[in-house]
């Protein structure tokens, strides 16, 4: 993967947001009411990120203040879940958490391979968005599957 310009990076990130929104819509069609609503909301968020990226320019990146987003690290200690047509809601959330975790890592790794400060910041902004998605999914997972009384 080689991205030499802001525009290359932006187009790539837009494609990733479109793919994520499609994945979440597919999961929404296949899960139960509470999880369905969460996946529908995530798809809308991804659409919003796509729109944000379509309007983004380097001035916006330079002005963006990065925030420290909490990481519950729940997915960090999970085994990878392979996609299947008959995933249950727990598996779907696990798959989504891992997808967001990998997207964050990819943007961070890409940022570490460039020397231009503006390009580094762009990758940091993209990684921050993925961390926010991961936090939302991990919070949902914790509430739905870890905090239950057995």
Q: How would you describe what is shown here?
A:
With 150 residues, this protein is an all-alpha fold. The protein has one domain (6-146): Ferritin, core subunit, four-helix bundle (Ferritin), CATH 1.20.1260.10. The chain has five helices and no strands. Helix 1 (6-30) runs antiparallel to helix 2. The longest helix has 30 residues, at 117-146. The chain is globular.
Produce a short descriptive summary.
The chain is mainly alpha-helical. Helix content is 72%, strand content 0%.
Main features:
globular, mainly alpha, Ferritin
Our estimate of the beta-strand percent is under 5%
Helix content: over 70%
- DSSP strand tally: 0
Low-confidence stretches: none
CATH third-level topology: Ferritin
Quickly give the structural class. mainly alpha
What is this structure's SSE topology?
Elements: H1 6-30, H2 33-55, H3 58-63, H4 89-112, H5 117-146
Helix pairs in contact: 1-2, 4-5
């Amino acid at each position: 993967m080689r991205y030499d310009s802001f525009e290359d990076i932006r187009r790539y990130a837009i494609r990733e947001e479109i793919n994520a929104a499609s994945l979440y819509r597919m999961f929404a069609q296949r899960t139960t009411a509470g999880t369905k609503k969460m996946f529908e909301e995530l798809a809308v968020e991804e659409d919003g990120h796509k729109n944000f990226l379509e309007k983004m320019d380097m001035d916006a990146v330079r002005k963006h203040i990065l925030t420290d987003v909490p990481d519950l690290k729940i997915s960090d200690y999970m085994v990878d879940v392979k996609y299947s047509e008959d995933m249950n809601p727990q598996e779907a959330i696990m798959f989504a958490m891992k997808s967001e975790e990998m997207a964050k890592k990819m943007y961070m790794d890409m940022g570490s391979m460039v020397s231009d400060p503006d390009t580094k910041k762009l990758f940091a902004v993209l990684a921050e968005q993925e961390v926010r998605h991961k936090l939302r999914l991990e919070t949902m997972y914790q509430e739905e599957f870890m905090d239950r009384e057995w």
